[in-house]
Design a protein that fits this description.
It contains 9 helices and 9 strands. The chain is α/β, with parallel strands linked by helices. The protein has 2 domains: about 60 residues, no CATH class; about 120 residues, Sugar-phosphate isomerase, RpiB/LacA/LacB (Ribose 5-phosphate Isomerase B, Chain: A). The strands form 3 sheets. The chain has a 5-stranded parallel beta sheet with strand order 6-5-7-9-8, with helices on both faces. The protein has a two-stranded parallel ribbon with strand order 1-3. The longest helix has 24 residues.
């Protein structure tokens, strides 16, 4: 099984006191992860047995390791691009949960944005991808759910920033606002980036506090 090794994976191992990273021939190490490996003084060991590598690295049985899974959805305007991005993700060994739509018949974007957001919120998917005409309305829908941070991205910089600074767990793009190659490049930037933590975590904690406050107010008003 091919793994995508991210900067966050290296940081996680470092916090566990590990300084050796076992990598199988099929594994992909992102540039950010490689920089972190060098910065933290990790040793890289090439191994063939991927299952053993995962067990050693994560301290769990190979059967308990979940593949990186992504939920993807679109309305009719994003149907074609959804297919393009699904293929791209599967080629990178992501498990893809396609929630629809499944043809170009006119439909309502909230239905699919909600489904993607629910998959991410319930941890059935590690992150989500939404496509509509501009990427804006689907993000608005997704952000109604607790714990969802959906970002409309329009270039590589915004995609990297969404992950590094905002720890976005859903990316939304516009099929009519951007070209196919641009969208592919934006998604690539999003999945290769990792949350930076530090001062950005402090800011996210404030967002979570706001969310929790208004959820409690809503619950109180119903009792």
């Amino acid at each position: 099984m091919k793994r995508l090794i991210l900067e966050s994976d290296v940081i996680k191992l470092s916090k566990q006191g590990l300084k050796v990273l076992a990598i199988a021939p099929a594994d992909i190490v992102t540039p950010l992860a490689m920089d972190k490996i060098k910065a933290l003084g990790f040793s890289i060991v090439r191994r063939e047995d991927t299952a053993s590598i995962e067990a050693e690295a994560y301290g769990v049985k190979p059967s308990e390791i979940r593949l990186n899974r992504v939920a993807i959805g679109s309305d009719h305007t994003g149907f074609y691009i959804k297919g393009v991005l699904s293929k791209m993700l599967m080629e990178k060994s992501y498990g893809v949960i396609d929630v629809g739509t499944y043809d170009e018949t006119s439909c309502d974007y909230p239905d699919f944005a909600l489904s993607v957001a629910q998959n991410v919120m319930e941890k059935k998917a590690d992150f989500g991808v939404l496509i509509d005409a501009t990427g804006i309305p689907s993000a608005i829908v997704a952000n109604k759910l607790p714990g969802i941070r959906a970002a409309t991205c329009y270039n590589e910089l915004s995609a990297r920033s969404a992950r590094e600074h905002n720890n976005a767990n859903i990316i939304a793009v516009g099929a009519r606002a951007l070209g196919e190659e641009a969208i592919k490049s934006i998604l690539e930037a999003f999945i290769l980036a990792a949350f930076s933590g530090g001062r950005h975590q402090r800011r996210l904690d404030k967002i979570s506090a706001i969310e929790e406050k208004f959820m409690k107010m809503e619950l109180k008003s119903k009792t």
